[in-house]
Each structure stands twice: as C-alpha cells, then as structure tokens.
Write a structure and sequence with these properties.
13% strand, RRM domain-containing protein, 11 helices, elongated, 7 strands, five-stranded antiparallel beta sheet, alpha+beta
C-alpha cells in the first residue's frame, strides 16, 4: 500500500498547521476546542465550502479570533438538544469570508452527519498533523515516551469523544488510503446510524410497515429493523431499533427535531436518535 511520511504530511498540510498555530500560540485558544474548530472547518470544506482554511491565511488575528468564535457557536449548537435558533441565525463573518450563506440552522438540521464528520477528521487528520504543535504548547517536547499518547486537556469530549495523539518520527509512514481516502461512511458505527422507534400500546406496528413508511419518505434508506424481543404472549412490541444506510439518513428523518412523529395505517411511530445504554 502506498504511504506518506509525517514530514510530507506536514508539507501537504502547511496552511492548516499555520492556522492551528495561530489559534493556539498567537491567540492562546484552548487546545481541544481549537482542534475541534479545525476539524469542523475541514468538514465544511468537504460539504460545499471549499478552501475555507486557505482563505483564512490573509485575515488578521482579531478576525481569525472572531471566526473561531463563530465556529465554537456551531459546535455548541451541535451539542444542544433543545436549541432555540434566533431569527436569521447566520454566521456573518464566516459567510463573508466564504461568499456563501451559512447558518446555525444548517448545522442543527445536519447535526448527526456533522458530528460524525468532525469525529472522522479529528481521528484521521488532526490527530496526526498537529502533534508537534500540541507538544510545544503543552510543554511535552522533552519527556514524551515514544509512541505513547500525549494528554490533551478537554478530551475525552462529552460530544465528540476521545482522540489519540501519538508523537511520531518525521520519517514515520502513514498509509495514504487510510488517511486521504476519507469518506463520510468511514469510522461510522452501527449505533451512529440507528434510530430508536416507539409505538402506542394497542396499535401494533409491523416491521413491514416501518420499512414501508421510511422507504416512501427517503427511498432505500433502511438497512435493518430489530423489533423488541422477548415480548410476552398476547402482547405487542412497543419499540424497535432501525438501522439506516447512512448517518445522513438519520438527519433527513429527524430534520433537526429531537423526537419526530410519523403515522402509517392509523398508527403513530415516534423516532429519536438511538443512544446505547450500558
């Protein structure tokens, strides 16, 4: 498999590393938050806002500070389950830089796709290209054990989870396919694309009705349906897990709502994002 060294990787991401350095060195912004901001900008570049980071190269530090602040507002929006979006909840400075509209509503309606995208970029890019900068800022340059993760305050994050930052030699090889072959389906667990469905007692819902309802709504989007098991004889399933083809299907069905209500054959189905309970 083709590979790339860390030195070559640094050269390829020189602009990204420059912006990150300004955030955490010039502006002294929080390390974990700044990594999430960069991951969010990477995600935006993949979803219709090209070269957003390159466009930041010529802005002043105060403007970069304000742009990072707008990005943090978006991150906070993703973490809120009861968000009230103000009228015209736009991101004026980011929109001006990109010459394209962008709003908190866009993030809220694509919440789970965006969270997953940010997690992916944290794992596949940020964790590798910013390591030496993180070591410099945390003062860990002289006593780091080779190939042992360094601790970044703020991780694990309540929404975005953990990220492993391992110092590597400049001639360390990374497989190109795993690093640059990023795709929205990479690193997606089944839980990430699962909805939890509940039904009304006395109105039994069949698996076939669930598939029919959501296929009519979103096309071929249902991967599998797992109805409540161990149901006592004579009683009906009251809930099910529905695994979808992609995380974007989750956002399309919920459309920014915490709980969405649907109806088929006179029966109600409530859907919300599935969360595993240990």
């Amino acid at each position: 498999m083709a590979s790339i060294t860390l030195e070559e990787l640094h050269a390829y991401h020189a602009i990204d590393r420059s912006i990150f350095s300004r955030l955490v060195i010039n502006l002294r912004r929080d390390l974990a938050e700044s990594m999430l901001v960069m991951a969010m900008w990477f995600w935006l570049e993949e979803t219709g806002y090209p070269n957003i980071i390159a466009k930041l190269m010529n802005v002043s530090d105060p403007v970069l500070e304000a742009l990072a602040g707008e990005a943090v507002t978006c991150l906070n929006c993703l973490g809120s389950t009861n968000l009230t979006i103000p009228h015209n909840g736009t991101l004026p400075l980011t929109a001006r830089i990109m010459e394209k509209d962008i709003s908190l509503l866009m993030f809220h309606q694509n919440r789970f796709s965006t969270i997953n995208g940010i997690k992916n970029f944290m794992t596949t890019v940020c964790s590798r290209i910013f390591t030496d900068i993180l070591q410099l800022v945390t003062g860990n340059t002289s006593h780091v054990t080779p190939n042992q993760p360094i601790i970044i305050p703020g991780f694990p994050h309540s929404l975005f989870g953990s990220v492993t930052i391992v110092p590597r030699a400049m001639d360390h090889d990374f497989p190109i396919g795993g690093l640059w072959g990023w795709h929205p389906s990479n690193n997606v667990t089944e839980d990430d694309r699962t909805l939890f469905l509940t039904f009304s007692r006395g109105f039994p819902v069949l698996e076939e009705e669930i598939r029919e309802l959501f296929t009519k709504m979103r096309g071929v989007c249902v991967d599998s349906v797992h109805m409540q098991d161990n149901v006592p004889r004579g009683e009906q399933p009251l809930f099910a897990k529905m695994v979808l083809r992609s995380v974007s299907n989750v956002d399309q069905i919920l459309n920014g709502r915490r709980i969405a209500k649907f109806r088929i054959n006179g029966k109600h189905i409530w859907a919300r994002k599935y969360e595993r309970r240990e």
